[in-house]
Each structure stands twice: as structure tokens, then as C-alpha cells.
Amino acid sequence: MSADGKGGQAGGDTTPLRIGVAGLGTVGAGLVKLLRANESIVADRAGRPIVVTAVAARDRTRDRGIDLAGLTWHDDALALAHDPDIDVVVELIGGAEGIARRLVTAALQAGRPVVTANKALVAIHGAELAALAERAGVPLTFEAAVAGGIPAIKAVREGLAADRLVRVGGILNGTCNYIMTAMRESGRAFADVLAEAQALGYAEADPSTDVDGIDAAHKLAILAGLAFGRPVAFSSVHVEGIRAIDALDLTFARELGYRIKLLGLARRREDGIEARVHPCLVPERAPIAQVDGVFNAVVAEGAFVGRLMLEGRGAGEGPTATAVAADLIDIARGNAVPVWGRSTDGLTQVEALPRAAFNEEYYLRLNVHDRPGVIADVTAVLRDYGVSLRSMLQHGRAASDDPTVADAPSVPLVLVTHRTRESAMIEALARIAALPAVIGDPAMIRIEAG
Amino acid sequence: MSADGKGGQAGGDTTPLRIGVAGLGTVGAGLVKLLRANESIVADRAGRPIVVTAVAARDRTRDRGIDLAGLTWHDDALALAHDPDIDVVVELIGGAEGIARRLVTAALQAGRPVVTANKALVAIHGAELAALAERAGVPLTFEAAVAGGIPAIKAVREGLAADRLVRVGGILNGTCNYIMTAMRESGRAFADVLAEAQALGYAEADPSTDVDGIDAAHKLAILAGLAFGRPVAFSSVHVEGIRAIDALDLTFARELGYRIKLLGLARRREDGIEARVHPCLVPERAPIAQVDGVFNAVVAEGAFVGRLMLEGRGAGEGPTATAVAADLIDIARGNAVPVWGRSTDGLTQVEALPRAAFNEEYYLRLNVHDRPGVIADVTAVLRDYGVSLRSMLQHGRAASDDPTVADAPSVPLVLVTHRTRESAMIEALARIAALPAVIGDPAMIRIEAG
């Protein structure tokens, strides 16, 4: 053990680790700032200096608040894979395809360690990239890809490595959590709050990656792969976003003692793995229900360790740069773990279970004509599919002074079920939606313990 | 990077890592159970099997729920330092001195990696042990020493290694948190709740290590050393326990919008490091205020990463064994980090700042005779020491039907100050305690943002 001079101790290699950074957006510029501001801390922790020697970005003239003098500039990021003056490639371009994928692939093929913050790339091509990294015998790390500054990957892949994890997930998208928190606090509609979040810079001009749950799904797929030691096929992750959440749902959730959060959840079952992203009702006293605004939270649960929750900033220049730099320190020390926590020998992607196999409690909100027999009709359908009810909310309509509103105005009807198989729920909902008294599509939100 | 076959990849050493376990109490027996129950998970994650080959404990005949057949038994734990059939010594005996210290010292001197859960040993002798480990070029790890199953040490020492941490701490003792939670929920007195906790096995027969804050101080000293890259002299940590907390304080805290938690807190200041353990009022909406019962929470804050909180089970067989096994997996893979996160070259212990240098907001509860002029007298003293008040609570005494209770019964008077230097507070409190209208010692609890 001591023969190789390891043990993370002094007296080892003190030559600088030379970094090439591809992409100088928020995270790339933040990394350069961090490595400069914390130069001596990083050198102490890494056992040697870590220096940026080359960068690649599209626009050389843009002011990023960092001095690029003395750095080699590459217009083509791919050149970093072979620049002889760098030891590690840091890919901060983003996107599952295109130049980011080509650069990471080329760097690994060239036997060069890679650090990336690219969640889409790792979620979608992680199995293939892990095999490349293993063949080359170099690390591929991505702490910054999940939950920003929270060392969630290290916690799951190393800290909990000895346990049989049964569940992993959490609040993985700060934009959605900000929007849901603001909707709850203000009573405003999704579109209003989204517009405000865009104005404040918390949401992109094209918000779909965030609000449709795709970003959270990338992160969930990565966490699930690490927790269960095997990459999860991204296409099999069930994804629903938050666009359909109505201010009414937040009001009813509160009345029932819940909050609504967009959660990513992966669970190990006897018959396979569940991996899903969707809004959830969580009990308002659950720790995860308290995580508001742009904060992220990662929950993991194992047979021996019990339940853990890690909470912090999931995005932004500083937190994300900290995560990238932590990966670089590990590499500088020669510390590494296989991409999915174990050798990829014989490791194939696992398909997550289909939606029909989920088994949850459900909150249903229907818009119904307020006339006799509606509840009987709806509950009869649920009974036919073996769905039993835990509670029901129907508020009498407000007395109207308007004599033209005489017959059957619409009112919301909220039902909460006991745990039931989602296949039954899907069929029951289709039948309920077709009832003459039901207006529009029923809203369905799953209920989680948190 | 790839030349040494590292990168945590396959194709490396697949010989088993052989473990000698000293101490077969709850954690030792739990570790043996975990390594057997999760044998294949651990082997996959470690890249090689991890097997217990030798054990040392006092009583060979005791039933621990584990089969000891096939293991070498040592009556003298020290023998593990030289048993030729083990690669790593796991010290689970406990105690800062005696056999635990001798074993860890001897094992490191023999060039053997050590894993320990011994917070007292690391807190008090960590500087000296780090130097020994570094000289031998072997790891000394102790993830289980702080916050049980929460990978707090890995998070602070590796995950946040690139940032300049300014603050670390949290709820570090589950027994105290259980007692404070039960006192708040039931309104009962400390002694009652302690007796119940002892009956339930949440508190020891001799509870002083827990309730006097010593256990939390051990953990805080370790966290502070890791966060600031330099061991903190344990004797300089300011420690107060929870025995003096009155049920009244919990009631007043609630009325003021706070909860009371025993926190360990270390802070980097311009003029040095604060390291202290004491009860705190924290705003009831702060995330750490929500962490109840036996749960622990570790908070860290850095210039780049912002604020993180990690929450989970801080003790118990399963969580603690998980942490020990995670350290073993790191060692099996050849991954290691210096004891205090950096080389010990020229690294001396740092003395934490004295109590007089603290600068806090304070909650004061006085027991005063209910007669005119008392408030004027008390507030005059505070004014003399430059302490300004933020709020005051005094409830009129309940009207008494007892004609013998006629003159000047005692009533509680609660004052909340603005931020002030503790040296001023100490002197002001001595003067206040000496006022004729003040009965007994004033209670003082610091207020933290959480």
C-alpha cells in the first residue's frame, strides 16, 4: 500500500496539472476565476498546482471578466483532445451531441482524463463513454452535472458505495423549484411566474428543457446509474414537467397538508428499476418540502444507511465551478472511481420500468358540472378499476347573484386515492374523462412520502 | 495517468483486501454484518473483495449476532498492528487514550492503513496521527467519526476541497437533538426527557459525553480541521451542553419564532477561527431548525459554493458501518487524501479564538422580582456595556388567588440583544446577576441564523 508512494500523502508529483477548458460560458469563466482566486487552497488540496493552460470558445472578443492572456486559444474545441500542453480536458460546452460529444470521445480515446458538467451527454451516452474511459484507463468525472455545488455524485458513488441503495432522487431543477415556490407563495399562474423567472434570469428564453422536466431527467438518470451501479437508458425515464400545474392544485395541496414539488425519483424494486420525473405532492412536514426557491436537494436511501438528504445550490457560476474543481483535485491526486462506480465488464444499460408498473397514491382534480350523481359516476369508475379512495374535497360553489348562471356550473372535485397500480389509474382516468359530467382532462399528481 | 493502471478502472489488483477489526460492539458487529450482506456490492465498488480476517475484542463468548468462525481472534487488539494476514486495521474500540490510541499509533508506525470511527482520538490526537500516517505514506480515515452515515468528511475534504470554506458545523449529536426535540414537543423538563431517552437506548447510563456537548465538540473539531485544512486544538473549543436549558426557554423561543438546537459551529474570521458547541436559538424556518429527533445535520458554507446542508442518521449500527465500509472501499481502490486534506508539512494545530471574542445576538432570560424599576435597572446595565436590545418579553404574572403571595413574586424577563461582543455580554451579565431584583443566574443562549 505504501510501496507506490500513494496514500494521498506528501512527497509525490508536484508538477502542475494542466487544464484545457472547452466552453467559456458561466461555468467555464467561473472555473477560471475559482482556480485563480483559490490558487493556493487548490494546490494544497491537490498536492500540486492546477493551472488552466488552454481554452476553447466561439468568440474570442467577448468580455467574460477573466484575463485570457498567456492561455492558448483554440477556435476548435476538438484541438484540446490533442494539445500536448494539457493533461486534462474540461468540457463545459453542453449538449448531448455535436462538438461536446466529439471532444469527450476524442479526449478519452487519446487517453486523456475528462471532467464535464454535461448532464445530457452523460445521461444519454454515459454507458458508451464509460467503456471508452475504462479502455483508456483514465477517469471521466462529472460532479458538476448533478445538483451543482452539492457533492451528490461523490456521496452516492463513494460515500454510500458499501450500501445497497433502494432509492435516489430529489429536487433536481432549481428553475422548476423556483417557479413552484413562487406559484405557491403568490397564488399566481404558471405563465406569470415563468415570465418573471425569465426576467430575473432564473429561466431560459426557451424554458422547455427546464419546465418540461428534461434537465431533471438527465440528472435523475445519472443518479440512478450511480446508485444502482448500472447506467439507466435515458429514453426509458418517465418525464412530466410542471406546465400543467394549476394554481388550484397548489391551493388544494395545501388544504390536504401537502406541497407540490417537481421530483426525480429512482427506486429499486424486485422486478426492476423505476426512474421518473414528475410533479409530486409531498407532506408539508417532509424535509424535502422545506427546500424552496432555486435550491436543489438530493435524497438517497439505503438498507444500512437509512435516509440522507443533501441540500444546496444546484446551479450558478460558483457552485458549479466548485464541483468541476473538486473533480480536478481528485485527478491531480490520482484518485479515481469507475464512471458508474464499478467496472463496465458485462455492464449493459438497464431499461426503467414502464409507467403502467408504477404503484402510487394519486391526487386527482376534475372539473365537473355541479349536478346530482356526478360523484357517484366518478367513484363507480374508480371502484370498477379497484381504486380505493382515501379522501375527497368538494367545495360548494359560491352562491351566484347572476340569474343566467342557473344550471350546472363547473366546480373542481378533488379525490385522493390509496396506493394503486398506475395501469389501473390510466384506464380509470380515460373512462372518467369520457363521463358527460366531466369537463376537460382530469389532472393527476402522484403523492410521495418525500 | 494511465501508465500505472489507475483511473479507478478495471484490470487492477483483484486480491482481497484483508481487514482486522478491533472492537466488536455495535459498530464492529455492524461492519461484519454489512460486509457479509453486501459482499458482492462491496467487491464491485472496491474492485476487489473486502474480507474480515481477524478480530479483537474483550469477550469471546458474547453473542453478537455474527458468526466468528474462520476469523483469527486476538485477545489483545494491539496484535492487529502486526498480524501478517491483514492489510488494514479498523479501530472501533473508542476513547482518546489507552488501547485505541496505542493500536492506531502502532499500526501507522508499521505502515498499515487505519480506518477508525473514534472521534475523540482524531479530535485530540489528530495532528500527531496525521504526521505518523504521512511519514508512513498510508491513509488514516475516519468518515464514521462525524455524523455517522452522512458522508460529511468526504463532502468537506473532497467535495468542497476547491473552495475557501468560511463556516462548518451543524447538529452533531443525535442524543441531544432527540432530547431537545422531545422537550419542545412535550413541554417536559430536561431530566424527565433524559430518563426516557436512557430507557429507550438513545442516551447512555452516563450521559455526560453527549449532554455536556463533548461528543459534538469532538466532531466539530474534526470538521473544522478539515474545512480549514489545519487541525484545531481540541482544548480551545468552547463547549456548553444542554443541561441548563429550561422548558421555559423552549416556550419563549417558540414565541419569538425560534427553535433551540445544540449546534457545533466553526467560523473562519479575519483574526482567527471560532470553534464552539452550545445551544442556539435558530429561526424556526431555517432548514436546520427542521432537523428533529436523532437526526444529524452538517452545514458548510464557502465563498463559491454557498451554503450546503447534509442531513441523515448520525449514529447506529447500519449508518456507522456504511461509513467505515466506504473508507475501506477507498483504500481498496488505492484512493486516499491526506488526513487534514493537505500535507502536514509545517502544519501546526491552531488555537480557536476565546469566548470573549465571539460576536453574537443573545437571548437572555432572567428570573426577577416583579416590582417597579427592574427593567430600568437591567437595561441600564446593558446600555453601560453598549449592548442594544432588539426585543423584550415580559408576561404579567397570573393573578393569584392566594393572599399569601402578596409581594414581589418572581417572573421571567426575556431580552433579545442586537449583535454584540461576548466580552461585553459576560461583564454585563455578571452585573445583572448581582442586581437585587434578579434571582439566580441569568440564562444566556446565543442566536444563530441556522
UniProtKB/TrEMBL annotation, chains A, B:
Keywords: Amino-acid biosynthesis, Methionine biosynthesis, NADP, Oxidoreductase, Threonine biosynthesis. Transmembrane segments: none annotated. GO terms for molecular function: homoserine dehydrogenase activity. Residues 363-446 form the ACT domain. Pathway: Amino-acid biosynthesis; L-methionine biosynthesis via de novo pathway; L-homoserine from L-aspartate: step 3/3; Amino-acid biosynthesis; L-threonine biosynthesis; L-threonine from L-aspartate: step 3/5. It is an enzyme of class 1 (oxidoreductase). It holds the Pfam family ACT. InterPro entries: ACT-like_dom_sf, ACT_dom, Asp/hSer_DH_NAD-bd, HDH, HDH_cat, HDH_CS, NAD(P)-bd_dom_sf. Its EC number is 1.1.1.3. CDD domains: ACT_HSDH-Hom (cd04881). PANTHER family: HOMOSERINE DEHYDROGENASE (PTHR43331:SF1). NCBIfam families: PRK06349.1. Belongs to the homoserine dehydrogenase family. This is Homoserine dehydrogenase. It comes from Nguyenibacter vanlangensis.
